[in-house]
Every structure is written in structure tokens, then in C-alpha cells.
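Good morning C.,

I know you're traveling, so I'll keep this short. The sequence:
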Amino acid sequence: MLRTFEEEYSVDVIHAWGMTEMSPLGTLARLNFRQKQRPPEAQRHSLEKQGHVMFGVDMKVVGDDGGELPWDGKSFGDLHVRGHCVIDRYFRCDESSLIDGRFPTGDVATIDEDGFMHITDRSKDVIKSGGEWISSIELENIVVSNSAVAEAACIACAHPKWTERPLIVAVLKPDANVTREELLAHFEGKIAK
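The C-alpha cells, ready to paste straight into the viewer:
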């Protein structure tokens, strides 16, 4: 007998996303029938995402050229939303915030084949290096997964060739000792070089 992630782990998981400008709910991560037939690890992976749109909300991810990116779970860009409860302009502001009738959320996201949206970063937190977007959050999560690191922050530094390059600032745990080379080696296989 197949069991769902919730049955297997005896939890009722609710993961949602929204913002004030959407009044406020935009997505909900609840598994559909097809997703519930998948192994528990695949179900958990889906539930870690922000989920599918709620009734009355439409979303898309756009690239630098403003074109819509595919729903493949890999292509990431700026998240734009529209709907009957989505803001069209801010109070006492004559100019609309909308781009092609959609509100730019400021989030960087992907949408997978199931229509589940996953926020990977904030557009102001993304580092643009050599034409590629690098998620500061992803780099921070990788470095803090090292047993010697207590906390870390990733910031963008100006670079003459690449425009920006990421810089990791890490605080080690008490009595921990790790070299720069060991920390860099910790990234191998987890992110593109």
C-alpha cells in the first residue's frame, strides 16, 4: 500500500506564499493526486516549494529579455503575478508598478512541470556574474552545511571582468578550524563552478 508523505511522517504540511500586494495569498503547496503517488522523498521535495497558484492568480517567470521561461523547474527568472486581488499601483502613486499587466514581485523563482513555484532568491539578493545569476541564498546554505561554519553571508563584490562576484563571509563555530581551500572544496558537486 502506498502512503503519502503526510501519512508516512504523521504531519499535516501547509506551505504557502503570498505578499501584501496580493491580498495576500498567492500559492499553496498541497499535493495533487499524481504527486501523492510518488515516493515520500519526491513528495517532500514538492512540499518544500511554495506550491501552485490559488484561484484567481496567474503567474509566470520571465527572463532578462522579458520573455516567459519554461515550466521545467530549472529555468529561473523574475516572478510576475496578476489577478483580481493583485495590486496595480501603490497608494498615492500615479504610476503603475505593472509590467505587461503583471506585478513584478521582486522574487527570483522557477516553476516546475506540476505548476509548483519555488522561490530561489530575491532579485536584489541575486549576484549577476558574467551574464549568469548566482543565488546568494544557495551559496549561504551550502557553506553553513559545513560542520565548521556557524553562520555565513554572501555578498556581491564588483569585478572588472565579471561585473560582480560572490564573496562569502563566514563565522566558524567555537574551536572549529577550516581552511579557505577546504571551504571551497565543500562547494564541489553542489553548484556550478
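Safe travels,
E.
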